[in-house]
Each structure stands twice: as structure tokens, then as C-alpha cells.
From TrEMBL, chains A, B:
GO MF entries: DNA-binding transcription factor activity; transcription cis-regulatory region binding
Organism: Actinoplanes cyaneus
InterPro entries attached to this UniProt entry: HTH_LacI, LacI/GalR-like_sensor, Lambda_DNA-bd_dom_sf, Peripla_BP_I
Keywords on record: DNA-binding, Transcription, Transcription regulation
Annotated transmembrane regions: none
Protein's name in the database: LacI family transcriptional regulator
Length: 338, 338
DNA sequence: GCAGTGTACTTGACCGGTTAAGTCACCGGG
DNA sequence: CCCGGTGACTTAACCGGTCAAGTACACTGC
């Protein structure tokens, strides 16, 4: 089956292919009657512009790129990324942009992928996740002048548009809630310490704990995986003065922490309260269901995609603050038993 | 920053761009010395062939497409898809093919996306998941002559290459294991009944149960979500003659089932044994860890990508049988308490 | 000494769009 | 009546590769 081209339309409409191009792109230069006729023919023969030809002649590639730099085993289980991707799609699909995905092993590889994509003119912009301090990707994106949005920065002024949320505020709310329930020994199991948003959360956690007079508030770094979540939880729970509440930086580690508590014969929430960051169906799935810091991950992704498309269109956009995660209390938090 | 083109290389090497093309593609027509020189220049200036230009002149687009037709909330939590995607990437990345993703709401939309991609010449082939009986996508793919591989068919002769695994054999093993432990009332919570692999599993489950004399073996259909998994489990457990073991078609529903059992005060595995299909870190995360039918999802994906690239290269490939899922016993299965 | 055969290139058409520049008919104003 | 302006097109160059066809030159064999 032959792919229809604008030449086919031109022939059937009895006009030149230039006229067809103008008609299809809503440009002036054709009469309304001709435009209608051309659009009808395009519709009839199922025409779709060859994206290669379009990209080649200087126009958009109509695709954006996303690199994921996490080991496969954690990518699979973390609902976060898929939620984000669904959000991108909702927005990109509506404007018939494609999403090109690449799983990589390191930030260096991400940079390589950006360079390749840029050279190949394969994409019009990229979505950057897992921002680090002095992230090596940012200068490269600037050098290549590749439109980009960063998901989850700190919200500070940045050369690249950021979609950020007030993680500090969210964690403060969680700590306040636990304190209100009567907890005074609160610990935290964090994500990868290199990531900027982990640092933001850690700073806010320390600040609120200090201001509330919780002196032994400790953060144990982990890496978002269940294994590390379990390990960190065990470390916290075997200590003499064990915490009565733990806040986890993602849902996977929180679920793992719950299992460790159960395995050690501790009751949740009786002996230990648990708060998960990033509410996902996973949190409501386990018993007891986990109190979580919820946000609309998919909406977050949609917003990022929207801003990226704006940036691609040359509209200069500044940082955008997304909805702050809010506490959704469920069965895993309660006043501590004495 | 200007993108380097073959013309830039040609100028620097003092040859024509045709020669550069031959050199870069390993074609005969240039001397070894010239080829080396050209490759060195390409390397030096960081040349990447413009994928649009390449695709336009009849060559490959060097991209494959994947559509995901599941609601966002289930996509996010199911480790299966991300595992699969990681597997694709491992293979595609190695051959510097890109993966283009699109989340859709219905098989009809998937067909539309295929047509659009084909018209746009955006991709060289597609990966098809969630095959149904008389799947409407298959004739379209044939009509468009779009290379494709289907993941998770029945293994029966098919117009489109299938990567399949012996799900019947796997479920038979699981049932035999439970019977050997002493169970006689075994139920199953299945995935979406329309999907071909669900039907294969249901058929095999019924057959092995009949052959082992288990007459009240029932399959409750669900949809892979935690909510449905919980509901199905409750339905099974409130009945008078409740099962002592349940096999779930995915890990998410199994985890949900575990929570329901705990919530109802039933001990797992004492009162109820649980087997999950598709082992993922999720299964080892909960307490007790779930006995699962494991397979190398990521390897499965890699194999599919490999076959697809073969199909794109015009090599005719037949159905490929992947590794059969094997039982990984963990803490959620034990002999039933009397 | 010259036809025949390679090898190592060059040339230029082509893929299917976009778009600047050109053409032509028609209209209104001076 | 002619001129300038505008609308509705057409023409053709261009994007950056690929590849068939053409060319130049060396070598080989009789």
C-alpha cells in the first residue's frame, strides 16, 4: 500500500503541491473553497504528512525525548515514572507529538543521548528528570539550544524551565501531623541523596524537626528500591530508641518498610506510623493502607509537557510551580502506643 | 550551534558527500584510508546523521513504536510494562533505534496511531501487546505491511510474529504445587478475559484442575487493578466453602488479595496460600513475600525487540517461544491448616 | 599498444515536505 | 486608460541524506 503524499492530493485537486501545503497548514495563499476541497481529499485518502520530510525542511520533528536514568529493576516498580509518562502523553497526544524514550545507565549517557538526538534532529525538546546539583546535562542543553523542562527542581531561578513543587512545605505538613498525633521520634528514609529534590526535602525535614524540638530526627539515605527501604527500616527499628514514625521518600520503600515492621512483629500503626511520599494505588493496596503525600503525578506530567511545547514554540517560560503534595491520612498513621 | 552534516565532513575531507555516505555506512566504494579519515572527522566534529533526511531517502526511520492501551492508573503500578520497556531499550539502544511511545484508550485508537505512524513514516515497526481474539490491529498491520511482533500470543500460527511463553504449562505447575502441599480448593483471579493469554491460562487452569479432580476450581475475572483484585478476593473469601489457595494473574492483584486476607483476619499462608503471576520486586516487598510465577520480563522484551528488528530487516521470522514462567516459592504458600 | 576490468571516487536525481519569489488575473482609483 | 495593489495561486530551491549511473585512472593480459 502506497503512502499518500501531498503530490497525490495536488494531482487530485488539480493544484500545485505548494498550494496543498498552504491549505493543510492553515496558511494564507489559498481560497477558502480550495482549502476545503484539499482538506476533504486529504481526509478521504487518509493523508498524514511524512514526519521526516517535514522535519527535514526545517519544521518541527513533532517529537520530544525523555531519558530515564534508573536501573530497570526500580523503574519497573516505581509507579511515579509511568504516571508521569501518562501525563506527558495526554498532552503530547492531543497535539500529535510523539514521545521518544530512552533508558540509560548514567547521566553521562544521558548527555550522549541528547547530543545524538540533537544531531539526528529527532526531537524538538527534552524532559529532564532527576535533577542533581550542578547537573552536567544543563550546560549541554544550553549549548545545543535544545528546549527543555526540568521536572522536580528546587524552584530556584534556573537557565532551564523547571516544573517544581513545594516539597519542603509538604514534608513540613507531614511532620506537623505526626507531632500532632503525639509522635516525637520521627525518622525519614530518603531517596538518592544526590538528587536535588532529596536535598530540598532533607533540609526542610531537618528544619521543621529542629523548630519543633525533635532532636533525634534522623534521615537514612536509600535509593528508592524496596531492598534499600527494608535495610534502612531495619537499621532504624533495631536501635534502642526506635522511632515511632517513619516518613519514606517513595511508596515502594514505604511498602517495604511496612513489611519489615510486620516481620519484626511490630504493629502498624500501633507501634510504628508510616507516611509514604507519592501516593499511588500501591499505598491503598497494602494492609493497612498507607498515609501518603499525594499529588497528581499525571497532571504534573501534563503540565511539564505543556510547558515544553511552549518552549519549543519559542515562548520563553519561567519556572512553574505545581500543586504541593498534600497529606492523605490512611490506616498507617495513628497516635503512638505508650 | 550548527548541526554538522555530511557536507561539512565532505568539505573537510576533500571528497564528495556521496563518498562520505559510503564511508559512514560501511559500503564499498571508498578506500580503507579514506574511510578511516572520514570516520575520524565524523568522530571529531560529533556527527550524527539527520534521522529525518535518512528516513526521507527511503532508509529506515530507526525507530519502533509501542502503544499502551491501559488506563493510566494501572499502567503506573504494573511493573510488567516498565520491565518490558527496559528490555526493549536494552536491545534497541544497542542498535541506536529509538522507541516511540503512545498511551491510548482503546484498540480503535491504537489502530489510528498505527495508521498515523505509518503515514508519517515515523517508525519501522511496532510492538503489539495485549492481543485479543480476532484482534482488529492485526489486519491493519498486514494491510500497511508494517513489521510487527506480538507479545504474549497463544503461540498458534499467526500472520504476525509472536513472542509467546507457555502460560498453560506454568499455571499447571502452580496448581500441581498447591495440590502437592495439600490444597484441594484452589481459586484463581484472572486478568481481563478478552485478552488471549488470559484465555490460555483459564483453559489450562480448568484442564489441570479437572484432571486432578478439583471440581470447585473457580476463576473470577478481574482487570489487573488492585481494586478489582480486592473485590474478587473478598467475593472468594466470604463464600461458605472458601478456597485455601488463590492464584492471581498479576502481582498487583495478588498484593491486594494479601491485604484483603489480612484485613479479614486470615493468616497467610496458614489460612490462605497466594501465588502471583509475574514476579516483580513487589512480590518480595510485602510480608509475607509472595510465591510467584517468575520470568525474565526484561529479557522477554529484549527478545521481542530483537525479533522486531529482524522483521524490519526483512528477515522472515516465525513465532518464538520464550522461557516458561517458573514457580518461585516464597512465604505465601504452605500446606493448608485444618 | 590497447581493450578490458577494477577501484575509487563524483555527479546528480530523488525522497516529501516548506517557503521565498514569481506570475497572472482582477479590481479600484486617479 | 493605466497603474498599483491584492488574492490565488505556481515555480523552484532547499533541507540532508542515499544510491544508481557516470567518470577517471591504474593495472592486467595478450
Amino acid at each position: 500500500m502506497k503512502r499518500p503524499t501531498i503530490a497525490d492530493i495536488a494531482r487530485r485537486a488539480g493544484v500545485s503541491k505548494g498550494a496543498v501545503s498552504y491549505a493543510l497548514n492553515g496558511q494564507p495563499g489559498v481560497s477558502e473553497a480550495t482549502r476545503k476541497r484539499i482538506l476533504a481529499i486529504a481526509q478521504e485518502i487518509g493523508f498524514n504528512a511524512n514526519s521526516a520530510a517535514r522535519a527535514l525542511s526545517g519544521a518541527r520533528a513533532r517529537a520530544v525525548g525523555l531519558t530515564l536514568c534508573r536501573p530497570a529493576r526500580i523503574l519497573g516498580i516505581e509507579p511515579w515514572f509511568m504516571g508521569l509518562i501518562s501525563g506527558f502523553e495526554a498532552e503530547l497526544g492531543a497535539q500529535s507529538y510523539a514521545l521518544t524514550l530512552q533508558v540509560v545507565a548514567s547521566p553521562e549517557q544521558e548527555v550522549e543521548v541528547y547530543r545524538r538526538w540533537w544531531g539526528e534532529r529527532r526531537i524538538d525538546g527534552v524532559i529532564v528528570t532527576d535533577l542533581r546539583q550542578n547537573d552536567i546535562r544543563i550546560p549541554v542543553l544550553q549549548q545545543l539550544q535544545l528546549p527543555a523542562v526540568v521536572i522536580g527542581g528546587s524552584g530556584e531561578p534556573s537557565p532551564v524551565t523547571q516544573i517544581w513543587s513545594d516539597d519542603g512545605g509538604a514534608i513540613t505538613e507531614a511532620v506537623r501531623y505526626l507531632v500532632a498525633l503525639g509522635h516525637s521520634r520521627i525518622a525519614r528514609v530518603s531517596g538518592v541523596p544526590d538528587l536535588l529534590h532529596t536535598q530540598v526535602r532533607t533540609k526542610a525535614f531537618n528544619e521543621v524537626c529542629t523548630s519543633l524540638g525533635l532532636h533525634d530526627a534522623v534521615t537514612v539515605p536509600a535509593d528508592y528500591t524496596g531492598e534499600e527501604g527494608s535495610r534502612a527500616t531495619r537499621r532504624l527499628l533495631i536501635g534502642g530508641d526506635r522511632p515511632t514514625a517513619i516518613i519514606y521518600d517513595n511508596d515502594v520503600m514505604a511498602v517495604a518498610g511496612l513489611a519489615v515492621a510486620q516481620e519484626m512483629g511490630l504493629s502498624v500503626p500501633g507501634d510504628l506510623s508510616i507516611v509514604a511520599w507519592d501516593d499511588s494505588p500501591l499505598c491503598s493496596l497494602v494492609h493497612p493502607p498507607l498515609t501518603a503525600l499525594s499529588r497528581d503525578v499525571s497532571g504534573y506530567g501534563a503540565q511539564a509537557a505543556r510547558e515544553l511545547l511552549n518552549a519549543v514554540d519559542g515562548k520563553k517560560v519561567g519556572n512553574v510551580k505545581a500543586q504541593t503534595a498534600h497529606l492523605t491520612p490512611r490506616g498507617s498513621t495513628a497516635p503512638p502506643r505508650n
